[in-house]
Design a protein that fits this description.
Length: 322
């Protein structure tokens, strides 16, 4: 599965063969700067009401909900295997989502706020002292879904990530996560759980359907300095007639995308932040790649002490599928 975008030689050519030295926010600012400039950030925002107020569950009820298995159908498994992603309805209740959102808002207010681009990224939330967010990050309901979709016995958490695209924040460029994650395995999946419904104008995560669709973008050179990669990938998909699923997310719906599934998101053109909890899982037994690069961002914080080429089993990467 060696791809030009992942090769060490190409990392050198495109100037990404260094470690990322700045913050995670800086990483997102840099990354969003690579988005197609012609798909400009909106100047007029669509009025969107805040999520409805609902009663919050007790911690015990939340723990129970997030530990209860989700009944994945054969069709949903097949869709993930064929398309590289799947959207699942009603995985998390409105009350549980509201509890997570309240915690995210509390912790965000105490932090530094989003970077220049309006993209707020907060990771390792289960280490931030919030029991609610710890229950989400370590949720067996979500971890089991990740393992079952990958068809593996157990998965470990790579990292959890709160992603808040503030009103007016621009486009997330086309990419696939295997490009970022320094994990030497094809059994890697990311869950993307919106903390409110995501209508079209808010920029739902959009997926290029097809397990092997990434091959169409293989010859598109990655650029660390301009939007040519985002535009080139979009053009390759258009030319090949790839189906792109940019459908809205209902409240409680979430997606899982394989690390080779290309995805992007339009700008958030609404008056509300687009809040999401994204967690990445990998099959137990996977190893750290030999040469992580700057595209891998802040990976040392997510796997402290993991050695290039070594099996990943740090205390921050627990098995979560039990
Ligand atoms: O939320 C976004 O706009 C991008 C998120 C993403 O690429 C991911 O979670 O893999």
């Amino acid at each position: 599965m060696e791809s030009r975008i992942l090769s060490t030689e190409h990392a050198r050519e495109s100037g990404v063969d260094q470690q990322w030295e700045q913050t995670n926010e800086d990483w997102w600012d840099w990354y969003l700067s690579l988005a197609d400039a012609s798909d400009a950030a909106p100047t007029e925002l669509v009025e969107e009401p805040p999520p409805a107020t609902v009663p919050l569950p007790s911690l015990a009820d939340l723990a129970q909900e997030l530990a209860t298995p989700y009944a994945l159908t054969g069709e949903q498994r097949e869709r993930f295997a064929a398309d590289g992603y799947v959207k699942l309805p009603a995985v998390v209740s409105p009350g549980a989502l509201a509890a997570a959102r309240a915690e995210v808002e509390r912790l965000a207010a105490a932090g530094d706020g989003p970077g220049r681009s309006g993209f707020l990224s907060m990771d390792l939330m289960w280490q931030a002292g919030s029991e609610v967010l710890r229950l989400f990050a370590l949720s067996p309901r979500l971890g089991r879904l990740a393992a079952d979709l990958l068809g593996t016995t157990d998965v470990r958490l790579y990292h959890d990530n709160v992603l808040s695209k503030e009103p007016g924040c621009g486009r997330t460029p086309w990419h696939f996560d295997a490009h970022h994650f320094p994990i030497a395995s094809t059994d890697v999946v990311t869950s993307w759980l919106p903390l409110q419904a995501i209508p079209e104008a808010m920029g739902p995560l959009a997926f290029a359907a097809g397990r092997n669709t990434w091959k169409l973008a293989e010859d598109t050179d990655f650029s660390a300095t301009d939007d040519s990669y985002d535009r080139g990938v979009a053009e390759a998909f258009r030319a090949a007639g790839v189906r792109v699923d940019d459908s809205p997310f209902a409240l409680g719906e979430m997606s899982f995308h394989h690390s080779w599934c290309f995805h992007y998101a339009r700008a958030n053109a609404t008056t509300q932040p687009r809040m999401v909890m994204a967690s990445t899982y990998f099959a137990d037994g996977a190893r750290l790649v030999d040469e992580p690069t700057m595209v891998s961002g802040d990976w040392q914080r997510f796997m402290p002490g993991a050695e290039p080429g070594g099996r990943i089993d740090t205390p921050l990467n627990p098995i979560v599928s039990a």
